[in-house]
Amino acid sequence: MHSSEVIILNNQHTFSIVGNSKNKSAVEKMAQGIFTLCAFIAILAVISITVYMIINGIPALLEVGLKELLFGTVWKPTAENPSYGILYVILTSIVGTVMAVVLGVPIGILTAVFLAETAPKRLAALVKPAVELLAGIPSVIYGLLGLMILNPLMYKLELFLFKDSETHQFTGGANLLSAVIVLAVMILPTVINISEAAIRAVPNSLRNASFALGASEIQTILKVVLPTAKSGIITAIVLGVGRAIGEAMAITLVSGSSVNAPYPFNSVRFLTTAIVSEMGYAAGMHRQVLFTIGLVLFVFIMVINISLTSILKKGDKDNG
Question: 117-145: buried (b, 16+ CB within 10 Å) or exposed (e) per residue?
Answer without folding.
Answer: bebeeeeeeeeeeebeebeeeebeebbeb
